[in-house]
Specification:
Chain A: InterPro entries: NIR_SIR_4Fe-4S, NiRdtase/SiRdtase_haem-b_fer, Nit/Sulf_reduc_fer-like_dom_sf, NO2/SO3_Rdtase_4Fe4S_dom, NO2/SO3_Rdtase_4Fe4S_sf. The complex is a heterodimer of chains A (about 550) and B (about 425). Chain A is built from 19 helices and 21 strands. With about 550 residues, chain A is an alpha+beta fold. In chain A, strands 16, 17, 18, 19, 20 and 21 form a 6-stranded mixed β-sheet that branches. Chain A is globular, with a radius of gyration of 23 Å. Chain B has about 425 residues and is α/β, with parallel strands linked by helices. Chain B is about 30% helix and about 10% strand. In chain B, helix 2 crosses helix 3. In chain B, a hairpin with a 5-residue loop joins strand 5 and strand 6. Chain B is built from 14 helices and 14 strands. In chain B, about 40% of the residues are buried. The chains are: A alpha+beta (about 550), B alpha/beta (about 425). The complex binds protoporphyrin IX containing FE and iron/sulfur cluster (2 copies).
Chain lengths: ~550, ~425
């Protein structure tokens, strides 16, 4: 895992001091809220419905137990005892006081963390595969390059006041678990014909009110030139991205309006100037950073099969947890564990201080002190011995973190919605809760299989509803809250934006509507191995529309 | 007779005094300049009034009246160091002729001259600042000593002065006395002839309004007499001439502090903004908007004066890349601090085109963005935001002084930008 050197530590210290000064000037009235807003945003501080919200960067979703314990400490000391893990692998606290923020930042700095650029119109936290460095299907570990991008983008003087926020995601595996095609820039590791590893660059993807699947702008950029290439894209965007309309300011609109070829021409012209210049990344530096990510001292273990069937007979809940929450590891005898933060009936992504501490202990003892945050708002212990799984499970049960629903219908992504968010049209957490109560039966969940439901409280789509196999979007209609349902979205390498099925439903009617879709799928699937999304692709939307609204509606 | 008592130096305007001054204006016949002056000197402000005279083309009339009322009234003369020798001769002539015993020359602070105008050409680049150090600064301590001032201003002189009264109250509660308010050009000439007063030696040569030599030119027939001052410099009036309602009591140059921050200090700015009537052939020390430059490119290139360029967001610095060496300064406009396009422009200018002149940020320039601007190549800042000015003046910008990215041209030591470390 990356460790700050003297330079990184000094950088965060200075930045914290700078922001503390800005907070002081705001509190004293020297800065107006207008002048303070972009400054606090660049330090992760939002003004929400009820209070300030502080979002803390978890670079590419990687945490140590010490860091997670500090987050627990912050939750307990400055907040209401819990934190919320986000879809960008960060954590946010919903109730800090402005005057405490400098102290929180100082606490964070003591464990090599910060809130820099977790909001504002700048380059945000770089996200990646939660199984990076562990996944069996990985081409390369994306974290060294992610760390270099983190450094390159930190307080970049040219790109601190972009037209709009800018998000970069990377995937080191061909199975995209980081939704790179829905980011401003997505980086997909690929090997060129001579076996060299580089990056496919995707640009202009995004969700929000205009969901667009990114387009490939370059099929192979070697590590050496990656920074120059990204800086070229950013410069074109900074100069030509729209600033007249906040809703059209993302790079996806620029690419969409100007056309990929035009943008590509401008980017390539910039790149021709910058290529080979100061941004060239020397192999030595890449190696130096990569050294921080050398695999932990794995034991030589025999390959171990987990006999899920047998375990299920012995202990159903444990068996199901094994079946759903364990991902295969590239080392024999090891596995990655997904800790679900989606217990039935609780806000998705929330963890209490006690839970964080318990998970930190588990990571320290069983996972080489490493932890990950997933963009699906779960936690991961990336490197655990299969032999330790039962012990870990038991500890999780004690903390109410042992839900075996990873990847299942109740493992939803859900934004904070009207309960916390100033922009929301509708509540989203209660919707998630009512759905998970409806599908609480594990037998039923297993029968349904892989199904991703994603819920956003408004068109800003923080809950990624566009890429939910089933997406739910809260809208405001005549003062009431209605929920629109979309179908067929997919965040992976088969990227697709879900289609709106029709008129919205009242909150109480949503679980029924989801159940009708699920029943239709079960009735129509070729066999239990055909997942929901595959069936939707094969059958099209018609039968599902009919299930939702009935035959007459369809005819109308 | 309405009476306004000797002036207590108070800062809050007193409505009664204001009324008194208004009443005073009704007391005198329009042309009774001498009566006005005498009343001011003897009744309203005894021992507490003085006059500043330019010893210009028609200063003689008022000074003659002064000599009738009180020969030892303090008469200040701004010896700016830039006067025509003829003016200096004229001071002596009038002094002797009128028997004025209290003419006091006040001079600029030599330290100021050395610092701001070492070559004596500030008048060309920045007349506001030149006037400031040569007139306003030296006069400031003296204006505070008196409760009132006599001026030679006349209604007819410029369009803006059409309603000048005999008595005015300034916002800092001083009384301005304008005995000649109702005099016309012809009245001045008639008075001069009647009393056989000497003419300014340059009057016959066509100088109707005479100030410092560099800033005075001949006025054409029928032209506003003051049109000869600051011809082409877009500078018409100076705050020192206090307006009629007393709203502006301070010289404008004192209100408008130096806004250009460069090399660690706020300094006089030789440049001014491009204005409506500016001409591509004669403009100088002006930041020409990029589209205007492109439109009149040939003319600007033939113009021999120093020029600057103004680049606003959305304009492409590439479009003038071959002409950049023509500019002494490029101003990059930040219309709002949230508009980051200027950063790219600055980097292109300094890094790609190696522009060596001044790169200045103008517009919404605030403390928290300045460090970023500097890293992108900005070398000068035009700042109006008061807390930012203070932070700059005190050297107290909150900034992060170490960076990750290689931005800018200066080499950063190995070890400060991790990924840039190179083997060998
Ligand atoms: C930016 C600064 C200034 C400008 C633009 C300016 C402008 C002028 C002009 C155009 C005249 C000619 C009037 C004429 O001859 O008809 C003049 C005269 C004069 N100025 Fe200034 N001036 C400035 C500063 C000052 C200052 C600081 C003082 C001191 C209070 C001052 C006092 C006078 C006086 C007493 C006259 C002579 C009026 C007369 O002829 O009796 N000026 N000034
Ligand atoms: S999707 Fe809308 S309601 Fe939900 S968190 Fe984002 S802005 Fe708020
Ligand atoms: S009138 Fe001209 S020379 Fe005299 S002080 Fe002003 S700018 Fe300088």
């Amino acid at each position: 895992m990356y460790r700050y050197d003297e330079f990184d530590a000094a950088f965060v210290r200075e930045r914290t001091a700078q922001f503390s000064d800005q907070v002081r000037r705001r509190v004293s009235g020297e800065l107006s809220e207008d002048q303070f807003r972009p400054l606090r945003l660049m330090n992760g501080l939002y003004l929400q419905l009820h209070a300030y919200m502080l979002r803390i960067a978890v670079p590419y979703g990687t945490l140590s137990s010490r860091q997670l314990r500090m987050l627990a400490h912050i939750a307990r000391t400055y907040d209401r005892g819990y934190g919320h893990f986000t879809t960008r692998q960060n954590i946010q606290f919903n109730w800090p006081k402005l005057k405490d923020v400098p102290d929180i930042l100082a606490d964070l700095a003591s464990v090599e963390m910060h809130a820099i650029q977790t909001s504002g119109n700048c380059i945000r936290n770089i996200t990646t595969d939660q199984f990076a460095g562990a996944a069996a299907d990985e081409i390369i570990d994306p974290r060294p390059v992610a760390e270099i991008l983190r450094q390159w983008s930190s307080l970049h003087p040219e790109f601190s006041y972009l037209p709009r926020k800018f998000k970069i995601a990377m995937s080191g595996s061909p199975n995209d678990r980081a939704a790179i095609r829905f980011h401003d820039i997505g980086l997909q590791a690929v090997a060129n014909p001579s076996g060299e590893i580089g990056w496919e660059v995707w640009v202009g993807g995004g969700l929000g009110r205009t969901p667009i699947v990114g387009k490939m702008i370059n099929g192979f950029v070697p590590n050496e030139h990656l920074l120059a290439y990204l800086e070229s894209i950013l410069r074109v965007y900074n100069r030509y991205g729209r600033r007249d309309n906040k809703f059209k300011a993302r790079i996806k609109i620029l690419v969409h309006e100007e056309g990929l070829e035009t943008i590509k021409g401008q980017v390539e012209a910039e790149f021709a100037e910058m290529r080979g210049g100061v941004l060239t990344l020397p192999q030595e530096e890449l190696d130096r950073i990569a050294a921080y990510f050398t695999p932990p001292p794995f034991e030589e273990l025999p390959a171990t099969r987990i006999d899920v069937k047998r375990e299920k007979i012995l202990d159903t809940a444990y068996g199901e947890w094994l079946e759903n929450n364990i991902t295969s590891h590239r080392m024999p005898g090891y596995a990655s564990v997904t800790i679900s933060l989606k217990p039935v009936g609780k806000p998705p992504g929330d963890a209490s201080a006690e839970q964080m501490e318990a998970v930190a202990d588990l990571a320290e003892r069983y996972s080489f002190d490493e932890l990950r945050v997933t963009h699906e708002q779960n936690l991961v212990l990336p490197h655990v011995r299969i032999a330790d799984l039962r012990t870990i499970y038991n500890a999780l049960v004690a903390e109410e973190l042992a839900d075996g629903n990873a990847g299942l219908i109740t493992d939803m992504i859900c934004c904070p919605g009207l309960d916390f968010c100033a922009l929301a049209n509708a509540r989203s957490i209660p919707i998630a809760q009512s759905i998970s109560e409806r599908f609480a039966s594990m037998t039923r969940q297993k029968e349904i299989g892989d199904l991703k439901i994603k819920i956003s409280g408004c068109i800003n789509a923080c809950g990624h509803h566009h890429v939910g196999h089933i997406g739910i979007l809260g809208v405001e209609k005549k003062g009431g809250e209605l929920y629109q349902i979309t179908l067929g979205g997919d965040a992976t390498e088969n990227a697709a934006v879900g289609k709106i099925m029709g008129p919205g439903f009242e909150a109480e009617a949503v679980p029924d509507a989801i159940e009708r879709l699920v029943d239709a799928y079960i009735g129509l699937r070729q066999n239990p191995a055909e997942p929901f999304i595959a069936a939707v692709r094969r059958l099209g939307e018609a039968p599902f529309k009919e299930a939702l609204y009935g035959a007459s509606e369809r005819a109308a | 007779m309405a009476q306004v008592n000797a002036l207590p130096r108070q800062h809050r305007p007193d409505p009664l005094r204001a009324l008194g001054v208004v009443a005073l204006n009704g007391m005198f016949d329009e042309m009774d300049a001498l009566g006005v002056l005498r009343h001011a000197v003897e009744e309203i402000l005894p021992g507490d009034v003085a006059i500043v005279s330019s010893f210009g083309a028609d200063s003689a009339v008022l000074l003659h009246m002064v000599s009738k009322v009180k020969k030892d009234l303090p008469v200040y003369f701004l010896e700016t160091g830039k006067h025509f020798p003829e003016t200096l001769d004229y001071v002596e002539t009038l002094k002797t002729r009128l028997g004025l015993t209290n003419v006091i020359a006040i001079q600029p602070d030599p330290a100021d001259l050395k610092r701001f105008d070492p070559n004596g050409d500030l008048w060309e680049t920045d007349p506001d600042s030149c006037c400031h150090i040569r007139k306003t600064e030296p006069l400031e301590p003296i204006t505070e000593e008196y409760g009132g001032w006599v001026t030679g201003r006349k209604r007819y002189q410029t369009v803006e002065r059409g309603v000048l009264p005999h008595f005015e109250l300034t916002s800092d509660d001083r009384i301005k006395v304008n005995p000649l308010a109702h005099f016309s050009d012809a009245d001045v000439v008639a008075y001069r002839q009647e009393h056989n007063l000497p003419e300014h030696p340059l009057y016959q040569s066509g100088y109707k309004s005479i100030g410092c030599a560099p800033c005075t030119s001949v006025v054409a027939e029928g032209e506003d007499p003051r049109a000869g001052r600051w011809r082409g410099l877009n500078k018409k009036e100076c705050g020192i001439h206090f307006d009629f309602n007393g709203a502006i009591a301070k010289p404008m140059v004192a209100v408008e502090k130096h806004r250009l921050f460069k090399d660690g200090a706020f300094i006089a700015d030789p440049f001014h903004d491009w204005g409506e009537g500016d001409d591509a052939a004669t403009a100088h020390y002006t930041h020409v908007p990029l589209p205007v430059f492109l439109e009149h490119r040939e003319t600007f290139l033939a113009n021999p004066h120093p020029l600057g360029l103004l680049v606003s967001p959305g304009e492409r610095i590439e479009d003038v890349k071959d002409d950049l060496q023509r500019f002494a300064s490029v101003a990059i406009k930040f219309p709002a601090f949230t508009d980051g396009r200027g950063y790219s422009t600055a980097r292109l200018l300094s890094e790609r085109y190696r522009f060596a002149g001044e790169i200045r940020a103008v517009g919404d320039v605030l403390a928290d963005q300045i460090p970023l601007m500097r890293r992108c190549g900005v070398t000068a800042l035009v700042v109006t935001h008061e807390p930012t000015r203070q932070a700059l003046a005190e050297g107290k910008l909150a900034e992060v002084a170490i960076f990750y990215q290689p931005v800018g041209l200066t080499e950063v030591p190995v070890g400060t930008r991790p990924y840039l470390r190179r083997a060998g």
